[in-house]
Amino acid sequence: MIKVEHSIIVPRSVEEVFSFLGNFEQDPHWQSGILEAKQMPAGAALVGTTVKQVRHFLGRRLDYTGEVIEYEENKKIWVKSISGPYPFEGGYTLEPVDGGTKVTFLLRVCEKIRSWFDMLTTNGMASMGIQLLSRSS
User: Fold this and answer.
1) Residues near 98 by Cβ (< 8 Å), separated by ≥ 6?
2) Coil, strand, or helix at residue 48?
3) Which of 9, 30, 54, 73 has an alpha carbon 20 to 30 Å from 103's alpha carbon atom?
4) So what CATH class is 2-110?
5) Range 45-66 average pLDDT
6) Among candidates 9, 31, 8, 21, which has minimal Cα distance to 78?
7) Helix H or strand E segment including 15
């Protein structure tokens, strides 16, 4: 399992931040790799809400669907993939701090992504090598 964790302080109230993060259709506005996001049903994300997203990663288009499996208002949103190129779980925890809200992003990705990532980088390196060789001849 690959794990990623990152925290930031947002100079807004927990309620404002949670409201923004809890609407996955906002994701393309602040996450550069997300091209599209559709949340069903629309509105606040609750347990059972699904989100379909299209991402651009390493020159490839990735389509996946996730489902909210944990929801604690103003504290936590946790999503698990139900379709897509790699299984993952991830989400946000929020806590009030002086000057705003501490947001911690957590992501756990199945080991399968290693072989997928290796394939992408190996194919990408091979392709780049072929391009370089064809330019020099």
Assistant:
1) none
2) coil
3) 54
4) alpha beta
5) 90
6) 21
7) helix 14-21
Say what the pLDDT of residue 122 is.
44
- The answer for residues whose C-beta is within 8 angstroms of residue 54's C-beta and 6 or more apart is 34, 35, 36, 37, 61, 62, 63
- Cα separation, 40 vs 50, in Å, equals 5
pTM as predicted: 0.75
Which pairing describes strands 34-40 and 50-57: parallel, antiparallel, or unpaired?
antiparallel
Grouping H, G, I as helix, E, B as strand and the rest as coil, residue 67 is strand
Q: Find where tokens 């790799």 sit.
A: 33
Instruction: Convert the pLDDT of each residue in 84-101 to its tens digit.
Output: 888 889 999 999 999 999
Rounded CA-CA distance 107/105 in Å is: 7
Q: Would the pLDDT of 44 be above 70? A: yes
